[in-house]
């Protein structure tokens, strides 16, 4: 049976902090809102921006959507490319592709941006399935985005013995919690935007400091399956 590995994007494959935070500041300033402290701004990295504006800036949903539209003016033209791949990501993608994993992306970033970013870094060919946020389809939060990715991959969650075959790799609690709830093996990466404490509290099954750790985790799980 095919194994499946599903990656988050921001904080997992790419370091997109610069573009997101500069675009956030641009949007808030445009409407005269105070810029939150840097520590609070970091909490915007991962969940939907509209949710974060309501949670951390006290906005109504209408205000948050207005600011998000302004955010998109900068992010959609400049910010999405203020971004870089984390070290050895291409090697990791090549490994799982060569080992015949079904490889997917599940991100709360709008899918159109996600595809442009993968194209920008020339890594689109590694992915069999790409799913991002799509308000028209009701895909906003990580769990429903991940569920669609799992469905599109078309592979079983477990083999005939009940061993799980789908991995979810991400840097925030939203990735881990969604992965756990949907029956994936959750891998939390500590080089991204979530803290180790956050990932532990979300019950990540594995914590990885870098891509080498991810490779070792996959190899370990493969050995366990063969036993």
UniProtKB/TrEMBL annotation:
Alphabetized InterPro entries for the sequence: HAD-like_hydrolase_sf (IPR050155), HAD-like_sf (IPR036412), HAD_2 (IPR041492), HAD_sf (IPR023214), PGP-like_dom2 (IPR023198)
GO cellular component: cytosol
Pfam families: HAD_2 (PF13419)
SUPFAM superfamilies: HAD-like
Molecular function per GO: protein tyrosine kinase activity
PANTHER family named in the record: 5'-NUCLEOTIDASE, PHOSPHOGLYCOLATE PHOSPHATASE
Official protein name in the record: Phosphoglycolate phosphatase
Native species: Veillonella tobetsuensis
């Amino acid at each position: 049976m095919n194994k499946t590995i599903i990656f988050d994007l921001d904080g997992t494959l790419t370091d997109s902090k610069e573009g997101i935070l500069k675009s956030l500041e641009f949007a808030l300033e445009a409407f005269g809102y105070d810029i939150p402290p840097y520590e609070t701004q970091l909490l915007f990295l991962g969940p939907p921006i509209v949710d974060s504006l309501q949670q951390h800036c006290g906005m109504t949903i209408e205000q948050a959507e207005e600011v998000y539209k302004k955010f998109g003016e900068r992010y959609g033209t400049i910010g999405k490319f203020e971004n870089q791949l984390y070290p050895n990501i291409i090697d990791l993608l090549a490994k799982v592709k060569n080992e015949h994993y079904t490889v997917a992306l599940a991100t709360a970033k709008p899918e159109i941006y996600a595809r442009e970013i993968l194209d920008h870094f020339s890594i689109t060919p590694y992915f069999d399935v790409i799913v991002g946020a799509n308000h028209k389809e009701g895909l906003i939060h990580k769990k429903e985005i991940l569920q669609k990715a799992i469905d599109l991959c078309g592979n079983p969650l477990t083999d005939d013995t009940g061993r799980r075959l789908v991995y979810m790799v991400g840097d925030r609690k939203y990735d881990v919690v969604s992965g756990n709830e949907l029956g994936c093996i959750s891998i939390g990466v500590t080089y991204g935007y979530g803290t180790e404490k956050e990932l532990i509290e979300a019950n990540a099954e594995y914590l990885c400091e870098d891509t080498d750790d991810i490779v070792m985790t996959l190899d370990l799980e493969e050995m366990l399956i063969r036993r």
